[in-house]
Amino acid sequence: MEDNKDVVGATETAQVEAETTEKTPVDTQKTDAPKEKTFSRNEVNRMLNAEREKLKAELKQTYEAEKTEAEKLAKLDATERLNYELEQEKKKTAELTNTINMMTLKDTAISYATEKKLPVGYIEDWDFAKETAETIKEKVDKLVQLRSKDLEDYLKDKLKQTPPKAVDDKSKKNDPYLMGFDNYMQSMKKRK
């Protein structure tokens, strides 16, 4: 019986706390913290299962590719297998050589552009796998010419001055202040 009282007592205190929580208004405007999205256990399980399925599909695809490769190699005799492996290694070597050449060409292009005082941002998005040293040199030279022309045009536009205004001599003769000054100067010359 005492165990039941503890359970009933715990239930009653939980109900009282729930009632007090319901009665006290929560001011949502005072809290500036953004609410974080919470997920239920089912939502989390669905997301995890989706990721697992995606990973399974990728692994299955890799497994199938390796399996067909192994079956292909099993059907070949020793000399054909060696020739096949040699071709595969040649392909890998060619890919690595192309990558090294591309990186070297990019470094050369960057140094040439820097030498020509062209910002590197102009050439960093180029596909260096499709370029040669000659084409890169031509492109950098063309960019340098275009950039200098653009800068000259920009500076000419910004440094333009308005032409001086033509002075009308008629208004000078009609100005009473200037007429008085001219009269004063003439009278000073006469006194001398």
Q: Which structural class is indicated by helix and strand composition?
A: mainly alpha
- Low-confidence parts: 1-11, 20-25
Rg from C-alpha positions?
A: 43 Å
The number of strands is 0
Give the quaternary arrangement of the chains.
Answer: single chain
SSE string, helices as H and strands as E = HHHHHH
User: What proportion strand?
Assistant: under 5%
Helix content: over 70%
Could you tell me the mean pLDDT?
80
**What characterizes the major β-sheet?**
none
Distance between the termini: 137 Å
Shape, per Cα inertia axes: elongated
* Number of helices in the DSSP assignment: 6
Write structural notes for this entry.
The chain is mostly helical and 192 residues long. It has a domain at 100-159. It contains six helices and no strands. It has helices at residues 2-23, 41-75, 78-115, 133-158, 169-174, 176-191. The N and C termini lie far apart (137 Å). Residues 1-11 and 20-25 have low confidence and may be disordered.
Q: What's the short story on this structure?
A:
It is built from six helices and no strands. With 192 residues, it is an all-alpha fold.
